Amino acid sequence: MIDTAAKPKTRTKVKAERPRLHKVILINDDYTPREFVVTVLKAEFHMTEDQAHRVMITAHQRGVCVVAVFTKDVAETKATRATEAGRAKGYPLLFTTEPEE
User: Fold this and answer.
1) What residue ranges define each of the domains in the chain, with the CATH number in brackets?
2) CA 12/CA 10 separation, integer angstroms
3) Torsion angle, CA of 86/75/95/84, rounded to 10 degrees?
4) Which residues contact 20 (CB under 8 A, 6 or more apart)?
5) 3-state secondary structure of 2
6) pLDDT by residue (tens digit) across 38-76?
7) What kind and span of H or E run contains 37?
8) What is the DSSP string of 39-69?
């Protein structure tokens, strides 16, 4: 005789973990023109003129400023592209990334 009784199926819950976020940080330098920094922030991070100006001034006054927070790949790509935009013009403009706490 074949046992046709329904057996309870065990379900395993898959807990999807949110990807760890990374901050993109603008490092101040004394050589890159302010207007150029604002231009890069607007182009790469889609900021308004006012937002970009505030980020640039904060970095100027404090030495660094968090620009935005993204997943690791996006943060690294944006930081690299923004840094390379400065290098292409001969400026020491620098964006870095670090994990968010």
Assistant:
1) 30-99 (3.30.1390.10)
2) 7
3) -20
4) 71, 72, 99, 100
5) coil
6) 999 999 999 999 999 999 999 999 999 999 999 999 999
7) helix 34-45
8) HHHHHHH---HHHHHHHHHHHHHHSEEEEEE
Phi, psi of 98 (to 5 degrees): -155, 150
Question: What CA–CA distances, in Å, run from 15 to 18, 62, 78?
Answer: 9, 40, 29
Residue in the structure block whose two tokens are 């990807």: 19
Dist. CA 98–CA 96, nearest whole Å: 7
Q: Which residues pair with 94 in a beta bridge?
A: 27
- Whole-model pTM? 0.81
Lookup: tokens for 44: 């790469």
